[in-house]
Amino acid sequence: MKPNFPPCVYAETLLELPNLSASDLHVSAQYLPMIMEYYRQSLLLSQKALDYLDANYGISSVVAQSYRIGYSDRSLGLELPSTKNGAGEILRGSLKRLRLFKGTGHEAFRGCIVVPVMSGDSIAGFYAERIDRARRHAKAHYFIRLYSHCLFATSQCDGQPEVYLCASPLHAIQLEGSIHQPVFATDPSLNISDDDCAHLMGAGVNSVIVVAQSDTAPEHLKQLAKKLKKFGLKYRKIDNFSEVTYGTA
């Protein structure tokens, strides 16, 4: 009798958390770091991906390595056990629920720069950004949450009362290189969870400077301001001056 695992449904809803079994959590702890290392090595072998990071964000290969940035070149599936055996089927099923593979069995982030979102030593989620024009039903970017607290940070805020918040980890890394202060990031819609806000408050933050992109929707800014206000966090918006240097990705 096969174990009663949750359905292998790939969800792309930004704040929807996956229904993970104990086996999925084991796969998350054991395999996600290895997969991110595989993506990291793939980035170093892709001049196209490295050029994209440099041209759009001024991120060098050295900086990319320090943030464990990788690239999905569509070859990961060939390195995993086949679905023809039970272990391979269970592993790939878990990777679907962890959002790295789609229900079709294809890699979710094919052709994307992939940034792990860390919570301590654990991977709490992923940000992925396509380096070519999105075609068919593919998305230009993904932000996948595995846990309710999933907020990218360039470094610890060290009790600073005022922090910056960007619409993607790549923009945060770009900005941190200019201001040399901790920068946080969420997804391009500026979604932030209650646990994210609680984390900021626990770190001593009382004011958030939101770095808006040229295409940031006003309604997303309003929703973010409302959420921050709910937790007593002050809100202020500035335009992303880094766009002037590197252009909008």
Describe this structure in words.
This protein has two domains: 22-145, Alpha-Beta Complex (DNA primase DNAg catalytic core, N-terminal domain), CATH 3.90.980; 152-244, Dna Topoisomerase Vi A Subunit, Chain: A, domain 2 (3-Layer(aba) Sandwich), CATH 3.40.1360.10. Helices cover 37% and strands 18% of the residues. The protein contains nine helices and nine strands. It has helices spanning 22-44, 47-57, 61-66, 76-79, 86-97, 169-179, 194-202, 218-230, 243-246, and strands at residues 70-71, 112-119, 122-130, 141-145, 152-153, 162-166, 183-185, 207-212, 234-239. Helix 1 crosses helix 5 (86-97).
Structure described in brief:
This protein has helices at residues 22-44, 47-57, 61-66, 76-79, 86-97, 169-179, 194-202, 218-230, 243-246, and strands at residues 70-71, 112-119, 122-130, 141-145, 152-153, 162-166, 183-185, 207-212, 234-239. It is of the alpha/beta class and 249 residues long.
